[in-house]
Structures are given as C-alpha cells and as structure tokens.
C-alpha cells in the first residue's frame, strides 16, 4: 500500500470511527441541547471522514462506501482511542478533549502541506475541531470543578483514556517518508501543554499512566471494534448496492 | 407536559435562557426560542448548536429568562387598550407633497 493512501486512511478512519461513537450519543445525552451539540460534532467528524475516504478511494479505485462498509476490522487504521465504547458523559468529554486537541494541532499543520486535497480538508476541518475542543473544555471544567460526584467521574474518565493517548503521537516510516504527512510526534509537546492546562483548571489531576496501548495504525484493535463495525456496516452488507 | 419535559422540569437544576439571534442581514437581534443550560457560557454554546446550525445568524445573545421583567397578561387592559382609539398618534394626518419620493 502506498504511503499517501495509508496516511489518508489513518486520518479518515479516525474521523469515521469517532463519528460513529459520537453519533451514539444522539437521544442519549443528558439534555436535549447536548443531543444537538453532539449531533453537530458527530456530523462534522463524518464530513471529514467522507472527504478523506473519498480521497483515499481515488488513490486505489474504491469508493468511500466501499472503504467504510466493506473493509474488515484489520484493515481499519484508526486509533484505539476512537473506538472505545461510550462510557458516561464525562468519558465522552474526556475523549473529545484528547482527540479534538490532537486533531486541531494536526489539521492546523496539515493545511499548509503540499497535497492540495489534504490541505483543503484540513483547512475546513480546523475550524470545526476548534469548536469541538471548546465544547469538551467547557464540560471538563464544569464536571471537574462541579460536584463531588462529577469530579470523581471526570477524573476517572481522564485516567481511563490516558493510556490510549500515546498512540496519537507514534511516529513510523509512513509519516517520516511521506513528505506531505505531519509527523505526529512533533505535536505531543503542545498537546500535553494544552490538555494539562484544561485539566489543571478543572481541579482534576493529570493522569500519569506508564502503560500505553498501541496497534490501531497497523489494524490491531480492541475487542470493541468488531461490535462497532457490525453496527456500522450491517445494513450496507445486508443490502449491497441499495439506494434510497 | 410529556414525560421527558416533566422529568426535566422536576430534575433539572439548569436555568432557562432566552435566545436572540441576529441574522446576516438583520439589524437587530430577534427572539428565536429558549433552552436550558448550566450557565451563560454554556447557554451561548447551546444556542449556537440549536439555533444557528443552518447559518441562521452571525451574532447571538442569551439572557436568563428569570432576569426578564415582563408585562403581565392581567394588566393587558390598562397597558395596551388605551392606545386603541388614539388614531392621531399615527402619522397619517399629513398631506404628502407631490414629488416627495422617500417619505
């Protein structure tokens, strides 16, 4: 597989799987307004996924639908962070804080890359994810610095997701060899600074876990990924080629 | 009251905010609806998500519903009825000179 295709799939799969998890919150959020907010955020992520998967597909003759619905688990290149099942609302906001902050730094770099399509997608998405960061930040602050129970849950969520954050910054031959790619290891310092600032203000403690999961970029996923794909893909596979 | 709104009104400690949006061409903010939020910052964000997701506006105001002083329906008669027969308050008693276009 060529590096540009591999790299675009990573970006697209992150966005697609994140969108699927965010979308699961619709009609299950703590308030109607949050249903709509998370619906908007999920659709932003889905829009990014579509643009990126269309581009990836154009590189090897597949459509966005073939890539989303007819690849198996081991062919997906997303971060494990994106596929973990939704826990409570604090978990959703901790994940959004970690992931959107990463995406924001990434897209901000990528919009000046030499590949016009990737730069275009990044230029549009950077404003969307800036809002996702803000939304997550507002909630982390309120839950962390809220009641005893909300603080406990916020801390637990930040802790539970921390071991999945190093994977975002893992560097490999693909990102080092591909000139248009952003080497994610260059984003880690600023990501840590921004996320730490929010966690500090929320009165939570920044997690310090030494063990870090990895594998998503090479198609090794958590046990939850299969269930997610079953739900995501089952209609398309039951009725191949169906339109409405 | 349906089950959900009953549940929310019983359990929600979040105050109600009224939302005003200024549209792209509009000169003034117009009331568009209301929503619940824990504080004004979140109310503004919720309003962005609920009321401007189809490019309805370029500026939003939110104000706590409890901070609005409103006229009472009971006072409707003395507040509004006396204006009903004061036709001379409308600028309709002037002859418009011929040739004046933009009056």
TrEMBL record, chain A:
Alphabetical list of Pfam families matching this protein: PaaA_PaaC
Coiled-coil regions listed: none
Protein name stated in the entry: Ring-1,2-phenylacetyl-CoA epoxidase subunit PaaC
Organism: Kribbella pratensis
UniProtKB/TrEMBL annotation, chain B:
Record-linked Pfam families: PaaB
Gene3D superfamilies registered for this protein in UniProt: Phenylacetic acid degradation B
Top-level taxon of origin: Bacteria
Protein's UniProt name: Ring-1,2-phenylacetyl-CoA epoxidase subunit PaaB
Organism for this UniProt entry: Kribbella pratensis
């Amino acid at each position: 597989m060529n590096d540009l295709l591999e790299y675009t799939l990573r970006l697209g799969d992150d966005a697609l799987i994140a969108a699927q998890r965010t979308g699961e919150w619709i009609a299950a959020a703590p308030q109607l307004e949050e249903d709509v907010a998370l619906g908007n955020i999920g659709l932003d992520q889905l829009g990014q996924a579509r643009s990126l998967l269309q581009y990836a597909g154009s590189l090897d003759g597949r459509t966005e639908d073939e890539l989303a619905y007819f690849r198996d688990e081991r062919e997906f290149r997303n971060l494990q962070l994106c596929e973990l099942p939704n826990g409570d609302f604090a978990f959703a906001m901790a994940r959004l804080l970690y992931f959107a902050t990463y995406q924001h730094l990434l897209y901000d770099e990528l919009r000046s890359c030499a590949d016009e399509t990737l730069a275009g997608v990044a230029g549009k998405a950077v404003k969307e994810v800036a809002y996702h960061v803000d939304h997550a930040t507002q909630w982390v602050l309120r839950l962390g610095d809220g009641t005893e129970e909300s603080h406990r849950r916020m801390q637990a969520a930040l802790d539970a997701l921390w071991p999945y954050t190093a994977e975002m910054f893992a560097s490999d031959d693909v990102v080092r060899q591909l000139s248009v790619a952003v080497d994610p290891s260059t984003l880690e310092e600023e990501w840590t600074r921004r996320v730490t600032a929010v966690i500090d203000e929320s009165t939570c403690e920044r997690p310090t876990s030494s063990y870090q999961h990895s594998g998503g970029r090479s198609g090794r996923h958590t046990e939850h990924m299969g269930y997610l794909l079953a739900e995501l893909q089952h209609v398309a596979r039951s009725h191949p080629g169906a339109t409405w | 009251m349906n089950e959900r709104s009953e549940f929310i009104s019983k359990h929600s400690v979040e105050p109600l905010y009224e939302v005003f949006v200024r549209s792209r061409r509009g000169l003034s903010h117009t009331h568009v609806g209301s929503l619940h939020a824990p504080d004004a910052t979140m109310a503004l964000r919720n309003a962005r998500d609920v009321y401007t997701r189809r490019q309805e506006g370029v500026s939003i105001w939110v104000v706590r519903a409890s901070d609005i002083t409103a006229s009472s329906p009971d006072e409707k008669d003395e507040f509004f009825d006396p204006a009903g027969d004061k036709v001379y308050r409308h600028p309709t008693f002037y002859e418009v000179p011929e040739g004046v276009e933009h009056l």
